Amino acid sequence: MSYLSFMVSQIGEKRKQLERLRTSKTNMNQLQGEFNQYTQKVKQPELSATTWQGTRANEFEEVREQFNEAYRDISQSQMDSAITSIESKISSLEAEIAALEVSMDKEVKRLEEENKKDPIM
Question: Coiled coil where (predicted)?
């Protein structure tokens, strides 16, 4: 019976982990949406001949473009990678839970069969 208890506790723990991962995935998706929403802010204010021009303006534009590229990398590549990693772990945990549930069902059936053959009085 202790093996059955162990499996029940393992399933419970994995379900808690699964819930935390699902919450993390939701949070990451929301953060990625916020990042994407503010992408245009990096390009503000726009520089023109009437606002700012010359060597310093060109240097500023170059730095701003580098920052924009880094921002896009974070908001797209890195966050996509993190979300994909979370999704992979979610799938893995779901498979582990399903396997534990199958094992638990087999153990319950085995114990029932054992009790039919040798009932405890």
Answer: 83-117
- Neighbour tally for 86: CB within 10 Å: 19
CA dist 77 to 32, 40, 42, 86, 118, Å?
10, 18, 18, 14, 61
- Examine the pLDDT at 100 and tell me if it is beyond 80: yes
Q: What is the 3-state secondary structure (H, E, C) of the chain?
A: CHHHHHHHHHHHHHHHHHHHHHHHHHHHHHHHHHHHHCHHHHHCCCCCCCCCCCHHHHHHHHHHHHHHHHHHHHHHHHHHHHHHHHHHHHHHHHHHHHHHHHHHHHHHHHHHHHHHHCCCC
pLDDT tens for residues 48-60?
776 777 788 888 8
79-117 helix and 2-37 helix, angle to the nearest 10 degrees: 160
Q: Which of 103, 38, 36 is nearest to 75 (CA)?
A: 36
Query: What is the rounded (10 degree) CA torsion for 89, 90, 95, 97?
Result: 110
